[in-house]
Amino acid sequence: MSKHRRRRQAPTPHSPRRFAGIALTTALLAALTASVLPAEAGTTVVTPTEVGSPPVVRDSTVNVVVDRAAMNYTRSSASANFTQSSLAAVALGGCRGDNPAGTNNSPRTQVTVTDPDGTVVLTTLSQVRDLSFGGFLTNPANQPLATQPAPGNTNYRGGAPNSGGGFSATVNLAGKPAGVYTVTTTETNMVKTGFGACTVGTPASVGTAFGNTFVAGPKVSTQTFEYRPWTVQFKDVFGNGSVRANIEPAEYQYVVDTATSPVTANAPTPGGPTQQFYGFDGAFALPSDPADCVADPSTCLPDVAAPCVPSTGCTPRVMLINRPTTETSTDALVGVFDLDTKAFIAYASLNGKTRTLMSLGTVNDAFYHDLLTKLSTSAAAQGLDLGSILATEVSVGNGQKKVSLSLLNGLQIDPSSSPGGVQITTDATVQAGVILDIYSSLRLTGGACLANSADSSTEPNRYTRNENNGYTVTKSDLLPEVPAVGPLGVLVGGPLYHITGKFNSDALVNTATAAIGVDTAAGNPNGLPVWISPFLGGIHTATPKTMDFLGTGTWSASESPVLAGCLVVDFLLGTGVAVYNNPLPVGFGTIFDPLATPSPAAEQLTDAVNDAVDQVVGQASANPTVSGLLAQVTALLPLG
After folding, report:
1. N or C terminus: which one in the chain shows less Cβ crowding within 10 Å?
2. Are the beta carbons of 280 and 293 closer than 8 angstroms?
3. CA atoms of 352 and 426, how far apart (whole Å)
4. Quick one: pLDDT band at residue 358, thresholds 50, 70, 90?
5. d(CA 62, CA 224)
């Protein structure tokens, strides 16, 4: 062996070993000498809540946050004051372990949430923190382990003096009972004197530090919150807002576009209570103007409706909300709400935006949402407000009783089968003007149908039904298109359509009306031989068995498989002439056939059409746009 031994080279200032040693020393010294906060207890917070006593929770998802877990406290002798142990000191010999079958001395915080009946809905424990060498090198240091370990003799579930070492948990209250919930926080702090045993206790505070005494046992604190979810919710079919409410206690909140109002309790106002409830049985049609209804409920509610105070045990059917604008606030909500079907109509203002919110009810919205949204978009592009059209007043009579409805009610109720509804029976009638026809039927037996759909915005602009009911649409290739001019261009312009319909008596919805124009049906309240709408006699609504329409407009027709059956949905909003329940063997289809020859039956039909057009031109001359549009369409008809 050479006598010249090679000396072991000392680590260079930048060698990996020297860097690791410096880092570990620095981390441990910093942890041992860090300024320790004197706080002795964590704070448990429940979110989101509304101010109250106790605070109110609406959402089914509740967060429980503890800002500081339980701690380890040490003193050198019985006469010395306690201090919080740094995590470095804990790692080198503090109170550790969460093993019930072995060492079980780690500080820990447990949160338990119980429902109004005392049933535990959540139990959560502070997490095991990383006290390994690598745990001191992270930023921040000593985070909870990503994968929580099994109980062990060296696990540490306490907090970190400088960072607080808090934790959080989520409570799912979906399906849980409403009422007062209790949150119990149990802090198991540990105290240790010198090299003595770890004992459960919490030091007493003295000023901004701790004294030399402690209170034995865990520290327990409780708080409560009230889970009060919204029991009824109403959503606008066009997505412009919503209203949510509780009946007992009476309170509500509404949304306009993306803005949400504060919660309003049912406090008395100069104009009466903000929420009123009425009970009754049977069908109910929403009013055209909710403001008139809430001002005088007797004008819109059935005669059998009676005021209802839910706290006395009665079950309300209708809720009225009356919060008009005031001198100090332009925010307002005035509406009528069917608590059974969830159909509603309301005027809502919030943060300077005003919307008319409406719904056909939960069931009908599912059928018509897409159709109405598409139609509303098309109408808005031409300056038309579909909401205003649907809110137009309808005068419905059966010869003995007259009821005022809106076009929205034509979608809301089924006059032919709804108990307590309005039965409308009509003979053959001709309607001319702006015509709204909506039809839907549901077959649940006989086998699923094939998907079949078409609309006026997509070529070839034709539709042939496969079911024995619904629309058949033909586009005229012989007659010229009507120019799309003016604000009604979406209804008047475009190709001329011939639409025939066959409608079942047990349809989900079957309503037809001349929103602007005339109807030759008998029973006009002003005594004239026709209904002229909306100029004189209101609007007559029919539930026809058949339809024969000639004109222009927006339409959609579809057949969709539903289980072992078929859903038929047809929609027409157009300008033209329609014959319902035509008893004659001819119809507008003859106009599309250049080989058709005149006949006495055809002359009777065109005479009825001409009579309807004459009434429009004569009685509605104050509105030249309507008469002009009808003249364009009817000029294409053969005159008798």
Report:
1. N
2. no
3. 46
4. confident
5. 13
What are the tens digits of pLDDT across the range 242-274? 999 999 999 999 999 999 999 998 765 555 568
Cβ atoms of 473 and 457 closer than 8 Å:
no
Q: What average pLDDT does this structure show over 20-39?
A: 42
Amino acid at 260: T
Q: Which region, left, alpha or beta, applies to residue 360 given φ > 0 means left and ψ of -120 to 50 means alpha?
A: alpha
The angle, 0 to 180 degrees and rounded to 10, between the axes of the packed helices 624-634 and 600-619 is 160
92-108 burial code (b ≥16 CB/10 A, e <16): eebbbbbbeeebbbbbb
**Which residue bears the tokens 């009685």?**
619
Three-state DSSP class for residue 212:
strand
Cβ 310 vs Cβ 277: under 8 Å: yes
Q: Alpha-carbon distance 485 to 382, whole Å?
A: 10
Largest CA distance in the chain: 137
Residue whose entry in the numeric block shows the structure tokens 């364009």: 632
pLDDT greater at residue 176 or residue 635: 176
3-state secondary structure of 472: strand
Torsion of CA 296, 299, 301, 303, to 10 degrees: 110
> Are 546 and 430 in contact, with CB atoms under 8 Å apart?
no
The pair of three-digit structure tokens given for residue 268, joined into one six-digit string: 């008395």
Two tokens at 153?
């003799």
d(CA 388, CA 114): 50
Q: What mean pLDDT is predicted for residues 176-198? A: 95
Q: What is the pLDDT of residue 119?
A: 95
User: Six-digit token pair at 564?
Assistant: 């072992």
